[in-house]
């Protein structure tokens, strides 16, 4: 099954929303509790367009089965060369190497846009995502114990960073 990594289009938004909402409802990958509404998702999309931040999808047979994006790490001007990224896959396409393709594209785009640093904020229990990022040159730079709360338990957050 060939996978095409391409810029997202408005037609991909329903699939991206489904992927995000599955992660919200069934994992600690996103510390939100409630599914995102189509309106909130549209606002997220418009913000990406307005700020020139990419959203890319993994397209398998014409359907977005995963996506990646990044945005400025923090809003102050001094952080303008640092971005924080996210990559999410639908449940059927996890563990197939597609996340690698999405990450490679995000890294390429960030360098092309003149970014200096990319950050990943990952739930500490998600050891596979932490190992995945380390494989691609991210270094753990901090752990924040019990900063999140979801599913009736406190969650630790790990920050990893890659400098170009």
TrEMBL record:
GO-annotated molecular function: acyltransferase activity, transferring groups other than amino-acyl groups
Alphabetized UniProt keyword annotations: Acyltransferase, Transferase
InterPro entries from the UniProt entry: Acyl_CoA_acyltransferase, GNAT_dom
UniProt keyword annotation of Transferase present: yes
N-acetyltransferase domain sequence ranges: 3-164
Coiled-coil ranges from the UniProt annotation: none
Name the record gives this protein: GNAT family N-acetyltransferase
Gene source species: Chitinophaga parva
């Amino acid at each position: 099954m060939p996978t095409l990594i391409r810029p997202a289009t408005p037609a991909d938004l329903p699939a991206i929303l489904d992927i995000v909402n599955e992660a919200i409802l069934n994992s600690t990958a996103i510390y939100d509790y409630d599914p995102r509404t189509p309106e909130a998702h549209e606002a997220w999309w418009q913000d990406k367009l307005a700020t020139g931040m990419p959203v890319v999808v993994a397209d398998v047979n014409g359907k977005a089965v995963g996506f990646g994006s990044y945005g400025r790490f923090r809003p102050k001007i001094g952080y303008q060369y640092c971005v924080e990224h996210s990559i999410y896959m639908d449940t059927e396409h996890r563990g197939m190497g597609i996340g690698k393709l999405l990450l490679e594209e995000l890294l390429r785009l960030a360098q092309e846009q003149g970014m200096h640093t990319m950050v990943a904020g990952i739930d500490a229990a998600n050891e596979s995502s932490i190992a995945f990022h380390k494989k691609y040159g991210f270094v753990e730079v901090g752990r924040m114990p019990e900063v999140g709360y979801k599913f009736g338990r406190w969650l630790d957050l790990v920050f990893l960073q890659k400098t170009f």
